[in-house]
Specification:
The protein is an alpha/beta fold. The chain has 11 helices and 6 strands. The protein has a 6-stranded parallel β-sheet, with helices on both faces. α2 packs antiparallel against α5, α3 crosses α4 and α6 packs parallel to α11.
Length: 233
């Protein structure tokens, strides 16, 4: 494995919870959104929180969990406002959606060692592609907000590919963009099912970051410092 990693030509890497702490940012932004809408609609925050949860569940029920749109905060905001006001309010929906992402991105921070890993990989001429679930516009904004847009070669979102990981569509599209074969790349991610299964189905070797795999045969690294070392960067 170590020899393979030091000689691979391309690196596919997940974004959310791999390069930064998605859970923390999402919790902060959701709390801020609830407060924002509670103030705008003059309603208790608890009522907003309950309506937002229902809106999320309803969106996923309608769309399923195989397309990027199931993550749409725009839909979550729209359905929340519709439930509480019995009408669609386009201006407030857009404002609430933009406010959520403004707060979210303001709190994003790369994990320790992530920038150094990307910088060193770029210097070693590795082709780097971020392969991520969710909506393309928000994912591209996140990459820009993290300040790593100049350190990567390509981005593939599940919206662009048409299917969410663990379907291998996004990884196969990444390979076409990179003009590499499955055996010439690795996939780095924290989700053993979504990242790992999509990699295996695309014939790509997966590496799990931060999350100790349930599969004892899986390759696991604890942090970016270790990742940088095993890649020989």
């Amino acid at each position: 494995m170590l020899t393979y990693l030091s000689s691979c030509k391309g690196i596919l890497i997940d974004l959310d919870d791999t390069l930064y702490d998605y859970g923390r940012c999402n919790a902060i932004a959701q709390k801020a959104l609830i407060g924002y809408l509670a103030k705008k609609l003059a309603l208790p925050q608890r009522r907003l929180a309950e309506a937002l949860l229902r809106a999320r569940k309803e969106t996923k029920k309608i769309l399923g969990d195989t397309t990027a749109a199931c993550h749409s905060r725009l839909f979550y905001c729209q359905k929340t406002i519709e439930e509480l006001t019995t009408r669609t309010d386009p201006s407030l929906t857009i404002a609430a959606h933009n406010y959520f992402w403004h707060v979210f991105m303001r709190h994003m921070r790369l994990f320790p060692g992530a920038r150094e890993f990307l910088v060193r990989a770029k210097k070693k001429k590795r082709i780097i592609c971020i392969v991520t679930n969710m909506i393309a516009a928000e994912q591209l904004q996140k990459i820009s907000a993290l300040g790593i847009d100049r350190l990567i070669n390509y981005v593939v979102s599940s919206e662009e590919a048409g299917r969410e990981k663990p379907h291998p569509a996004a990884l196969r599209l990444a390979l076409r963009k990179m003009q590499l074969r499955p055996r010439e790349v690795v996939m780095i991610g924290e989700d053993e099912y979504r990242d790992g299964e999509s990699a295996r189905r695309a014939g790509i070797t997966p590496i799990f970051f931060r999350l100790k795999p349930k599969n004892a045969s899986a390759f696991f690294v604890k942090n970016f410092k270790e990742l940088t070392k095993i890649f020989g960067l």
